[in-house]
Design a protein that fits this description.
Layout (H helix, E strand, L loop, with lengths): L9 E4 L7 E4 L1 H4 L2 H15 L6 E5 L2 H13 L2 E7 L7 E8 L2 E8 L8 E9 L3 H12 L3 E10 L5 H7 L4 E6 L4
Parallel strand pairs: 3-4, 3-7, 7-8, 8-9
Antiparallel strand pairs: 1-2, 4-6, 5-6
Helix pairs in contact: 2-3
């Protein structure tokens, strides 16, 4: 296993706006050993929970969620932004820093009573992850845990999930925004 996955994360200063230190996971994804390592670490956390489905949040959560689903032999369900899914959908509107957005999934794709793991590449404020978890709960699913490659603890996302009764874990942490 790669000893320090953080070495594979590229930091891009002042993106998407001044003062933000963007943590770019694409450099880790391009490293075969790093991606295998990250997936194995996520699977080690997830395996004992014995989820029915892995749910990934658009967009990089699709990559990590699908890899995790494959590692665990589970199905994968994408949570998408508004208007991206071709079938009948259910959705939830949520507040962003400057406006609102909507997350959707195909109606009936997450069965009532399903035990799910929510996956994304990074947790910052937690707004999107909390909304995704709420949408899954509205469909009758039990969100066992939310898993992230990267946690930015200063922004409070993990605490926001835990305040909603959702266990959350990150593989790496970075200071700052």
């Amino acid at each position: 296993m790669t000893s320090d996955l953080t070495d594979l994360i590229r930091t891009i200063p002042d993106f998407p706006k001044p003062g933000i230190q963007f943590r770019d996971i694409t450099t880790l994804l391009a490293d075969g050993e790093g991606l295998r390592d990250l997936t194995a670490r996520l699977a080690d956390i997830a395996r004992p929970l014995d989820a029915d489905l892995i749910v990934g949040i658009e967009a990089r959560g699709f990559i990590l969620g699908a890899a995790l689903a494959l590692a665990l032999g589970k199905g994968f369900v994408p949570v998408r932004k508004k208007g991206k899914l071709p079938g009948k959908t259910v959705g939830i509107d949520y507040v962003l820093e400057y406006g609102t957005d909507r997350l959707e999934l195909h109606e009936g794709q997450v069965p009532q009573g399903a035990r799910v793991l929510l996956v994304d590449d990074l947790i910052a404020t937690g707004g999107t992850a909390v909304a995704a978890a709420q949408l899954l709960r509205e469909q009758g699913a039990s969100v066992l845990m939310a898993l992230f490659a990267i946690d930015l603890p200063e922004l409070g996302g993990m605490a926001a999930l835990e305040a909603e009764g959702i266990a959350a874990r990150g593989i790496m942490t970075f200071d700052g925004h």
